[in-house]
Amino acid sequence: MKIKTLNGPETNLTQETFDRFKTQLYGDVLLSSDAGYEDSRTVWNAMINKKPAFVVRCAGVADVIACVKFAREHNLLLCIKGGGHNIAGLGTADGAMMLDMCSMNSVWVDSKKKIAHAQAGCILGDVDRETQVHGLAAVLGFVSRTGITGLTLGGGFGYLTRRWGWSSDNVVGIELVTPEGKLVHAGNEENPDLFWGLRGGGGNFGVVTSIDYKLYPVGPEVIGGPVAWPASEAPGVLELYRELTKNAPPELTLAIIMRPAPPAPWLPKNYHGKPIIIMLTCYSGDLEDGEKIVAPIKSLGNPLGDVLVRRPYTQLQSLLDATQPKGRRYYWKSEYLPGVESSLCEKVMEHAGKIQSPHSAVILFHLGGALNNLENDHSPVGNRDTEFVLSIAGSWEEETDNNTNIEWVRRAWEDMRSFSTGGTYINFLVEDEGPERIEAALGNSIKRLSEIKAKWDPKNIFRMNRNIKPANR
Ligand SMILES: Cc1cc2nc3c(=O)[nH]c(=O)nc-3n(C[C@H](O)[C@H](O)[C@H](O)COP(=O)(O)OP(=O)(O)OC[C@H]3O[C@@H](n4cnc5c(N)ncnc54)[C@H](O)[C@@H]3O)c2cc1C
Asked: Which of 56, 115, 182, 466 has the least CB density, counted as fewest CB within 10 Å?
């Protein structure tokens, strides 16, 4: 079997070597002719079309150790797929050995200590489902099919970030298999350098096998959901958004989505495909207080649809899933913002008016709050001055429409990037974004990360990520 090496050229593994390796594993090994290979090799973004030489669906830590040792022994290019949701397709690579972590998706909750121990192949929905059994939640993102590991290693934010910070701020321990195939634990007491690097530095140091999250009482119900108006009402909606976000308690998170109306049952059929503005809300505190706080949203103008109601937290966490299916084509540009000025609102409306596909959107997501309270060097995720994130999210179906949609995203971004803090979110970077964008995301942390990389992965075995080069190499 031909497989890429770390140095570039392919090596030939004999059948005997490969068969011997397979006897060490509990999990399935998939070749391109096997059922399941296609599902493993493809990722959320159909713009990425890579074909690993073979896939191992690791059944547990012992499989991960066997894989890392095998890759090291034969100098193989290794890629690791968590939830496969990275827009740049960092979880897959042509000709590589892929570790697909999807079978390692169990979650154990210690309700007394308020900690969830989640295996690295979990998607967000796995963790939300198990933690909500105890009325608890971890700080995660807002599309339930996203992988916990890619999200957390890059920072992570969602509806609870304003209360408790980035997802990575709420990690208390990480278990990882090193390039030597050794299982180590990283936390504040044990391997603190590695622990620091993992909270923003991505999968640069080894294969993460599990993450321990601090949990908080949330739900079972929150006040959440969207209210939508015709785009012609956008000036008033954006004005209210600016006002509410200025004085918002940390329990309140608000997002603006400007896009063509999706064919959702809560929106009138004759409006599907027409330009709308949505305010998406989550209030995770006391329900009666929350109802008072969201009242101005519900009474504004003439909404086309209003499903901002008391609902289970897990339901809110998967509300956007249908709008973000695997297999569409996606291209994004994002910036962190220090605030939302009225001149930015003008631009948001202008560029939303030029959207080229029924699935694309311009999004403002409210951050700030707890994440602002830590020092910038608390972990590499940094960006502690962030108050909002602006996302220009292109999404379409046909390859022939690539140029038109990418062009729309780039133009809108060029026109709005001056509003940025100068920082961006590493997990939202697309394939064509290079070192200067990684620097915008990680800032001064890169130097310290490269020293940690030199200690833990000096040969840069883990390189299919936003790669940090080992120091002095
Ligand atoms: C629809 C959608 C919604 C999103 N919503 C949010 C959101 O609300 N909040 C937010 O913060 N982000 C969000 N994101 C961005 C998300 O954080 C990134 O896409 C993230 O990379 C996804 O992680 P993954 O495990 O699914 O990705 P993958 O593509 O599987 O992996 C991403 C990177 O992590 C590495 N990796 C994965 N597992 C391991 C492991 N076990 N050990 C070592 N390295 C590993 C991979 O090798 C790769 O480099 C969203 C993305 C999408 C597509």
From this structure: 182
